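This section describes the prediction task in plain terms. A model, or a person checking by hand, is given the sequence of a single protein chain and must write out its three-dimensional structure as a string of tokens. No templates, partner chains or ligands are provided. The sample shown here is typical of the held-out split.
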Amino acid sequence: MKKYFRRLIAASLTVGSLMFMPITHASVETYVGTGEYIMNTSETFNDAKNQAKLLAERNVLESISFYLTEHSALVDGVLEEDEIILIVAGIMNITNVKYELTSDDDENFAVKAEVTAEVDADEALKLVEREVENRQLQK
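The expected answer:
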């Protein structure tokens, strides 16, 4: 009987502490970008895959940059798009990459990559706005 009450108290304390934990609302956004790279005769398939993936990642980062510019009045005129991309690249999480090999009638091969990435939009916005504020303080 004593064991039962100990377990009941332990369970109650655990549930009670979980109820009072702070709730965070991360706004994780999912972005999909594509990139296509046409291989030349001296390149390997892996080289082309890497180039296509880089183009797709750049596409995703540009989408995120556009989102951040639209949602922050502070950014205009202070940060360039490439600077925003560098900030966001550090917190972007790639969740999936798909490749497709295509060829045309002239036997030219192209690799198309599709990248799915997640970014915490709130965190990205905070990082960008912090950078903007730092630059304004340095003036």
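For orientation: The CA atoms of residues 30 and 118 lie 5 Å apart.
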